[in-house]
Automatic annotation (TrEMBL):
Pfam families: MbnB_TglH_ChrH. This is DUF692 family protein. PANTHER family: UPF0276 PROTEIN HI_1600. InterPro entries: MbnB/TglH/ChrH.
Amino acid sequence: MTQAVSDAWTLPWRGLGLSSNLSTSDVPQPYRLLDSAPGFFDFVEYSAPLSLDEARTQASLFSEMWSRRTDVPVLFHPVHLNLWGPELEPVSALKALDAHARAVGSPWVGNDVGWWHSRSQPFPGYLYISPPFNDAGLADCAAHALHVQSHLSMPLVLENPAVMTRRGQWHVLDFMAKLHARTGLPLLLDLGHLFSHQLSSGLPLDAGLDGFPLEQVVEIHIAGGVVSRRGARAFYVDDHSQPVREELFHLLESVLPRCPSLRAVTFEGDGHPPEVAQLSLKRLRRMVPQGARPPLHLRPPESLAVPPLTGDSRPWELFDAGHAVVSAEKVEDPEGTLADQDFRLAVVAETLDKDWPLSRLLLAGTREQLATFTASKEYRNLFEGGGRSLTQVFSAWAMRRLREQPDDGASAVLSLEMLVPTAFMKAAPPPAPGQVGLMDDVRPASFPVNLSELVFAARTVRRHLTARAWACGDLDLSGLEALAQVARRPGSEPWSFAVRRKAPGHEVLNVSRGLAELLRELGSRPRPVESVPPEVLAEGLWHRLIRLGDTSGVDRPLAQVRPVG
């Protein structure tokens, strides 16, 4: 094994940064925000695949980041880099990571200490599994960290993980201090992640900081999150799209003077509209003022000998606990495990709803049904080299369940949602001036039986149950029985409808018979505007299903419209 590091690491001052997934569809868009308000922040910390080529392909803002990286420096925060788990990262992946970080000029690479993926399959929502804070967890995390560092030209910076479940006898800061001592690698202090540990353990927010090596912290993260309660316990859910807790602003203010090696403070503001992100950045700018500071020189670890993984930290057992494969009562910290399961199951449901919004409600609409899916052989196979996606393993599980427990209504719905993506196999011709055509993200579709009542019912039942939950604090899922009844009584006539492609996933839309006929025709060829009945034209434009060819040859909507639903 060849060590890629030089004799010394030089870490420049980066200042205040804003995180980004480098997608044009995300908010805030860092470069638009910086253009409108110069000086709000100094750098961009972005998440992307380890491979530079994959990042170029998948990240729609990559080209702008690349062209502006001299004026707006970057830090690379890679997507799902394992720093714990049953297997070490492949050397080829780490070589790609090093090449990527060197190409963009990232002076270090930071990542949460956790198990992010199994055999390149990330856990849903990138919800990694944190290690146990004990000797076994320390040994295996040290092996992972030293293995990664041995293939990097720049320092690997170790970030304290978010936690809900108490595993092991140590405080998270004690664990991270021991990991630093074992590896010699610098640290990244995530304040929200620290808050998650303190709440779960019933500790004050600043507990453990006095004995923690703050002089080894080179970066700090601050982000939004939600505090929820289960019984007498409180838990912090790390959700960057939420407002930053006031406690975290105060904590940042108190730790900043105690971090002499600090090089960067990053606001992870994913999902904050630009005008909202500006408010947090203004406040952070006062704590981290603009201006150059001398670089920091660090000595790399004297030895990067990688010890073998012991497996004693039991990653697959903790995977099973987090995904409700085993009863929470049989593992350490049952209440914390249930809170962790709640979060993971919610993310699984949200992910499935992008492709299976109807089937998921009928087959896995309750917590117990979702847990049956995540405890299934199909779900486990996804992370053991099955090589398929979450949406594919759900369909395999759903088909097996329907063979074992036949349900004609659910079977029809599953067939419908398998059919929906095929609507986009055929391209739709664009309209010329004076013509009407399909929107790019819309296609016509048909099905042998009429499930329009179910599409309507799914939307109204969701709204009804959510409204009641807000009022009474309890989500009464018995209301899903109505969906099962509706699915079992489809109309006997063929059904025509519209499909809208979303990012990702699809949406089935009920439309009038006249509009359905128009959409079917427009799937083959545009029509002259004057040949379309005015009421059908108005309906299609209102619901943003059709578009008009502009007289200049540029497509544009000719009426104010509002999103469906």
